[in-house]
Write a structure and sequence with these properties.
mainly alpha, Arc Repressor Mutant, subunit A, Tetracycline Repressor, domain 2
């Protein structure tokens, strides 16, 4: 399998549209039926493409699944942590923490069923587990860069460990609210997470 999951590198507008239609059909199928029940033939039919067309773009359904994961990652994190207001005081730091927590939850909400499939597959499929680890490494690097840009307001000294702690906390929050449907109200969970992050990162 090629590194990015594509067997073809389409340049023309029609070819790119075909690729996007396969990605959209795959996202819908994996979300509605689960990874194990989906076939390349079914995805091609949903996209109104032939099976041969599917295999010109993707080696197999796993290659498509991984490409959808990467596509969602770009949509999820582009701008998510970019250019936040500085946490000049306790109220501002609380608002910043709440803004980030809400955006993480909202980014999971739109495609919650697909995120559920990622959670399940990363425990059993080495390729998906590797993709998730690489994604988490990239997110941690972005959070660490955010912390550096806010120095000396950020309290933790070990920024790498702090970035991972924040990333894991926000992911767990999103999963609990969006996928596992916590019996505690969303506003209460986001509120407590916002207080926790603000105190940990900014308050003396």
């Amino acid at each position: 399998m090629s590194q990015d999951g594509n067997r073809a590198e389409p340049r023309q507008a029609r070819a790119e549209q075909t690729r996007k239609s396969l990605l959209a059909a795959g996202l819908k199928a994996f979300s509605n039926y689960g990874y194990q029940r989906v076939t390349a033939k079914g995805i091609a039919a949903e996209a109104q493409q032939s099976v041969g067309t599917f295999y010109r773009y993707f080696e197999d359904k796993k290659a498509l699944f991984l490409e959808i994961c990467r596509d969602l990652e770009h949509r999820m994190f582009d701008g998510l942590l970019a250019g936040p207001a500085l946490a000049a005081d306790k109220q501002a730091s609380r608002r910043l923490a709440e803004s980030i927590a809400r955006r993480v939850v909202d980014s999971h909400r739109k495609h919650w069923a697909f995120h559920r499939e990622i959670l399940a597959l990363q425990l059993t499929d080495p390729d998906v587990a590797e993709m998730v680890q690489q994604r988490e490494d990239r997110v941690n690097d972005r959070i660490k860069q955010l912390f550096r840009s806010m120095a000396p307001m950020v309290r933790p000294y070990d920024l790498k460990a702090a970035a991972q702690a924040v990333q894991l906390s926000l992911e767990a929050l999103a999963h609990q609210i969006v996928i596992f449907k916590s019996d505690i109200e969303e506003e209460r969970l986001i509120g407590e997470m916002s207080d926790m992050l603000a105190r940990y990162l900014f308050w003396d």
